[in-house]
Design goal:
By secondary structure, the chain is an alpha/beta fold. Helix content is 35%, strand content 16%. The protein is built from 8 helices and 10 strands. It has helices spanning 17-28, 41-50, 55-64, 84-93, 126-133, 188-205, 231-243, 246-253; strands at 5-9, 35-39, 74-75, 81-82, 106-112, 117-121, 143-145, 148-152, 170-174, 213-215. The strands form 2 sheets. Strands 1, 2, 5, 6, 7, 8, 9 and 10 form an 8-stranded mixed beta sheet that branches. The chain is globular, with a radius of gyration of 17 Å.
Length: 257
């Protein structure tokens, strides 16, 4: 019986590189998604994966493209960064710039900042959707199209499982923002990140029941959202954690084999 497996990939900045390690472990266990849903970093990882790039190639693209690193961003007069540099990268690796040319169906979540609602893209201009989904508020200028403005999908939905419900036999969730509920100290540079994910944690917990398997490497807050220099470490951390779930993964897919 053919398996219809969906995977939801959370946001998380550089922590999203852990998704690549998790996907590598899943591949080694014979699991490859037939549908992908992602927001922010998860949308970026999911798009390249859906585009047929290998996991090592994707990690290399993220490193060389300065994703999750402010050095690749252009500064506008009003003091906010814009994402035109990223658009050029997407157009190199996705020359057709369309969801229709991906090997795996992809759903990309962004936030419509004017309507105050989540938006889900699965067709049309791919680079535009990816930039909207990963447009961190305050840091980046909102992405304008369709007569509205979009910012990071994680603002309202950092774990976009919804597009997979009733479409898949199995839903796997990959969440890379585990945080300690209590800490004894915090650096100023981490306050926004911690506040954001504390605010999102309850909504993520409410969605876990939709997943037959929920993968959440512990203590991901040891990596910051701009820690792309630790990409090898983050990749291996996600990979090694997913390897510990071999029994659960094989039990999950066995009934469909």
């Amino acid at each position: 019986m053919q398996q219809n497996i969906g995977i939801a990939l959370s946001g998380g900045g550089a922590r999203g590189i852990a998704h690549l390690g998790i996907l590598k472990a899943l591949e080694e266990f014979g699991v490859k998604p037939s549908v992908i849903s992602g927001t922010s970093a998860g949308a970026i990882a999911g798009a390249f994966y859906a585009g047929g790039y290998s996991l090592i190639e994707i990690k290399d693209i993220i490193e060389k493209g300065d994703f999750f690193n402010l050095s690749n961003i252009l500064i506008k007069k009003q003091g906010l960064f814009n994402m035109k540099g990223f658009e050029k990268i997407y157009q190199v690796y996705f020359p057709d710039n369309s969801f229709d040319h991906l090997n795996i169906p992809l759903y990309v979540t962004a936030t419509d900042i004017l309507k105050g609602t989540s938006a889900c893209f699965s067709s049309g201009n791919l680079s535009q959707a990816l930039m909207a989904s990963s447009c961190i508020p305050i840091v980046f200028q909102p992405i304008q199209f369709d007569n509205t403005y979009y910012v990071d999908g994680g603002v309202l939905n950092n774990f976009p499982v919804e597009p997979l419900i009733n479409r898949c036999d199995i839903i796997i969730g990959s969440h890379v923002n585990s945080i300690k509920t209590e800490v004894t100290e915090i650096h100023m540079s981490n306050i926004v990140d911690r506040c954001f994910h504390l605010a999102m944690s309850n909504s993520v917990r409410d969605k876990i029941h939709h997943c037959q398997l929920f993968i959440e490497p512990p203590n991901m807050s040891q990596f910051s959202i701009f820690d792309v220099k630790k990409s090898d470490q983050i990749f291996e951390y996600g990979y090694n954690y997913a390897l510990t779930l071999e029994k659960e993964i094989k039990q999950l897919i066995l009934p469909l084999q």
